[in-house]
Known about the structure:
Layout: E1 4-7, H1 9-17, H2 21-30, E2 35-38, H3 40-50, H4 59-72, E3 74-75, H5 91-100, E4 105-107, H6 111-114, E5 118-119, E6 122-125, H7 127-134
Parallel strand pairs: 1-2, 1-4, 2-3, 4-6
Antiparallel strand pairs: 5-6
Amino acid sequence: MGARVVLDTNILVSALGWRGAPHQIVRSCLDHRHDLLLSPDLLEEVERVLNYPKFRFSPAEITDYLALLTAAAEIVRPDFRIAFIEADPSDDRVLECALAGRAEVIVSGDGHLLSLGEFETIPILRAQAFLDGYGQD
């Protein structure tokens, strides 16, 4: 079985709009080759970002994508809050999901998270590094 993984919002948004490494990772989660961990807070943030006018996703595309993610994911409900990344507190929601879901890896393109390298022994990797270390299609 694959890894228990938390995908940051930037990875989930990129996966819908472009066909690079984030798309491959989300596809592998939808195919259950990895266990995708999401929280209500992360889903809310993904929906908010997907609705930014610059992305031009239709309401149907957003609804369908969120339904796919929700169906494939283990929804984790952290019962605690972390205040670790002062520069961008929304990044703390990723860390909360990872801890509550016993994630084995976090995948992100966010500089604040990537600069940590790991959090509580959970590695934080760029999309391509995840593919290189955890298998590609």
